Amino acid sequence: MRKWLTSRFGKARLMRWIMTFYPPYLGAGVRVRHISDDFRDITVSMGLGRYNRNYVGTQFGGSLYSMVDPFYMLMLMENLGRNYIVWDKTADIDFISPGKGPVFANFRVDETLLDEVRRQTANGEKYLPQLQVDIHDGAGTLVARVQKTLYVRLKPQARQA
């Protein structure tokens, strides 16, 4: 069934649909606006509603972080393929200004990053790339900056090949 779904709708489109109805995202008002077919460009947004509003009426910090949490990991997994282990290792969020309305984040992964990951892991060693994503409001004001460190390594069977 999964193969039928991905061939009929495309993997990126199917992932966007799944993420749209993922209960934590649905409740928090997170929307995946775009996933490119090659999983190298993703845009997400989150409105301000009663389920993600904090005591002072701005975006809840946990919702801001959850909005950006899985995407770099998913993007690397899709672009590197099944021979790689990809995990989130650490994350740091710096709250710059209050989110008083809808917020947006854009993720991009380029060939330079993918080549560097492949080079650093070619001998079976782990690699810990650090990636950053900014969260902006509708006017372009920086709301938060998230620094993610991923863990990437070739799977044991791929190291021996």
UniProtKB/TrEMBL annotation:
It comes from the Bacteria. InterPro entries: DUF4442, HotDog_dom_sf. Pfam families: DUF4442 (PF14539). This is DUF4442 domain-containing protein. It comes from Pseudomonas migulae.
